[in-house]
Amino acid sequence: MRIMNLLLIALALAAGASWLGCNTKIDEEPIPMADVRGGQDATVTVNNGFSPSTISVKAGEPVRLTFDTIEAGCATEVIFEKPKIRKALTNGQKTVVTFTPDEAGTYAFACPMGMYKGSVVAK
């Protein structure tokens, strides 16, 4: 019985720590992308969240996002609803996502649990 109680306490502490880490928010201004060879390139660091979490781009021009994963946490994948993109993220590796935002608007991305969020804002 004592072992069961200790396991429940450990599980509760782990869940609480995970929840706190996944809900950390950082106020940031949108980061403009660099124009490279007719496209737009940016690096998003994945370290228990996405940084920067908001990136500004020009609509109608190709976008190349490099997700540099240091510590994925719950971000084992990055998921874009529009366009439909789903890519695995692995600690210590870089993952490239490319797409062209055809029209102005916000292109949201998130981890599978929806706790880490970011967006590409096309103007």
Q: What does this entry show, briefly?
A:
With 123 residues, this protein is α/β, with parallel strands linked by helices.
Q: Key features?
A:
123 residues; alpha/beta; Immunoglobulin-like; 6-stranded mixed sheet; 5-stranded mixed sheet
Overview of this protein structure:
About 15% of the residues lie in helices and about 45% in strands. By secondary structure, it is of the alpha/beta class. The protein has a single domain, classed as Immunoglobulin-like, CATH 2.60.40.420. The strands form 2 sheets. It has a 6-stranded mixed beta sheet with strand order 1-5-11-10-7-8, with no helix packed on it. A hairpin with a 6-residue loop joins β10 (about 105-110) and β11 (about 115-120). The longest helix is centred in the N-terminal third of the chain and has 21 residues, at about 1-20. It is elongated and about 60 Å long. The relative contact order is 0.20.
